[in-house]
Write a structure and sequence with these properties.
The chain is of the alpha/beta class and 329 residues long. It has two domains: 166 residues, Bordetella uptake gene, domain 1 (D-Maltodextrin-Binding Protein, domain 2), CATH 3.40.190.150; 112 residues, D-Maltodextrin-Binding Protein, domain 2, CATH 3.40.190.10. The strands form two sheets. Strands 2-1-3-10-4 form a five-stranded mixed beta sheet, sandwiched between helices. Helix 6 links the parallel strand 6 and strand 7. Helix 2 crosses helix 9, helix 4 runs parallel beside helix 11 and helix 4 packs across helix 12. The longest helix has 34 residues.
C-alpha cells in the first residue's frame, strides 16, 4: 500500500516537472522569436556570383540588413543544380539565421530527378523575386541574331548550349525546346548564369539560358543577342524580346520562379518578419531605381501563393522525370 502511494506521488512529481519544463521551454522559444534577430543572418545564394539570382541577393541584402537592424552576410553556395544550397538550408536550424535564396523551379525539378533528402513542400516559403522565363541568348555579332536562325542551324549541326546544372529546370527547358523544334543540342552544364554568358562571349558555346534581367541588360549593351524569353507570351517589362513560342509554337516548357525560403518549421513570427522586411525593402525608391538600372522585374507573390505555385510545379514537371533521368545518364 505504501509502495503504491509512493509510486503515485513520484508519478505526480514527474508530470509536474515535465509540465513546468515544457512551459519554460515554450516561453523561452516565444521570447527568442519576439526579440529576433539578435545577430547576423546568412543569405545562402544557390547560384554562382554574377548571375541574376546573385545580383538580386546582393542587391536586397543591405536594405533588409538596415530594416532588421543586424548584419546580413551573402554566401554563394553553387553546384549540383542548386541542390547543395537547398539541402544545406533544409538541414539548418529553423531559427531565422540561415535563409535560402534560390531558383525554386530548379529546386523542385532537382528533387523530382535526383531524389535529394529535401522536399519542395516542406520548406518555409517567404516571398518571390521573379516569375519569368529565362533569356535564351547568343553572342552579339554571331550568326544567331534570331531564334529562327539558331533553330535552323541546330537542325543541320549540333549546337553547344549552356544550362545551369543537369537534370534540373534549365536542362528540362533545353530538352523540351530541342524536342519541339527538332534541334541537335549538346547541353553544357554550368553552376550559374554568369559563367554561361562568359563562355558565350568567349566563343566556347553557341547559346544558352541566363536570367532574363541580366540577359536583357547585356542585350541592351550589345554584348548578347536576347533571342527569346522562355514563356508562352512576351513579358510586359521586356516587350521587345520575343516569347519562345513565337518561333517554336509547340514548346511545352514555361517560366521559372525565384524567391527566398527558410528551413522547415521556421516559426511563423520570424517568417512573417522576414517577409515584411523584404516588402519594405523592395518598396524603397532607391531599390526600385536600382532594379530599373539592372533590368530586374520584381514580382512578389506572398508566401501562400509562392508555396502553392511550387507544389503545382512539382506536379506539372513530375511527368518529365524519366526523360530527364535518361538525359543525365
Amino acid at each position: 500500500m505504501k509502495n503504491s502511494r509512493m509510486r503515485r506521488i513520484t508519478k505526480a512529481i514527474l508530470v509536474f516537472t515535465f509540465t513546468v519544463l515544457f512551459a519554460v521551454t515554450s516561453l523561452s522559444a516565444t521570447a527568442a522569436e519576439k526579440k529576433w534577430p539578435t545577430g547576423p543572418i546568412r543569405f545562402i545564394c544557390s547560384a554562382a556570383p554574377g548571375g541574376v539570382l546573385d545580383t538580386m541577393t546582393r542587391g536586397v541584402a543591405p536594405y533588409m540588413s538596415a530594416i532588421l537592424g543586424v548584419t546580413v552576410v551573402v554566401e554563394n553556395m553553387p553546384g549540383a543544380g542548386t541542390r547543395i544550397a537547398n539541402q544545406y538550408v533544409f538541414n539548418a536550424k529553423p531559427d531565422g539565421y540561415t535563409i535560402l535564396f534560390t531558383n525554386n523551379s530548379e529546386l523542385t525539378v532537382g528533387e523530382i530527378v535526383h531524389s535529394p533528402r529535401y522536399k519542395t513542400e516542406e520548406f518555409t516559403y517567404i516571398d518571390t523575386f521573379f516569375v519569368e522565363g529565362p533569356a535564351l541568348v547568343a553572342k552579339h555579332g554571331s550568326p544567331y541574331d534570331t531564334l529562327g536562325k539558331l533553330v535552323a542551324a541546330a537542325k543541320e549541326k549540333t549546337i553547344k548550349f549552356g544550362t545551369i546544372g543537369t537534370g534540373g529546370y534549365y536542362h528540362l527547358q533545353a530538352l523540351l525546346m530541342a524536342e519541339a523544334a527538332g534541334m541537335k543540342l549538346t547541353v553544357v552544364p554550368y553552376p550559374g548564369g554568369a559563367p554561361i554568358t562568359g563562355d558565350i562571349l568567349g566563343g566556347h558555346i553557341d547559346a544558352g539560358f541566363t536570367g532574363l534581367g541580366i540577359g536583357y541588360a547585356m542585350h541592351k549593351d550589345k554584348k548578347l543577342n536576347c533571342l527569346a524569353q522562355v514563356s508562352k507570351e512576351r513579358d510586359k517589362a521586356y516587350s521587345d524580346i520575343p516569347a519562345i513560342t513565337e518561333a517554336i509554337p509547340n514548346f511545352q516548357g514555361g517560366p521559372y520562379i525565384m524567391g527566398f525560403n527558410g528551413p522547415p518549421r521556421l516559426p511563423d513570427a520570424i517568417a512573417k518578419r522576414l517577409g515584411e522586411a523584404y516588402k519594405e525593402a523592395i518598396n524603397k525608391k532607391e531599390f526600385q531605381d536600382w532594379t530599373k538600372k539592372v533590368a530586374l522585374n520584381i514580382t512578389p507573390l506572398g508566401a501562400a501563393e509562392f508555396k502553392k505555385r511550387m507544389v503545382d510545379t512539382k506536379a506539372q514537371y513530375s511527368k518529365y522525370k524519366d526523360r530527364l533521368k535518361s538525359a543525365v545518364k
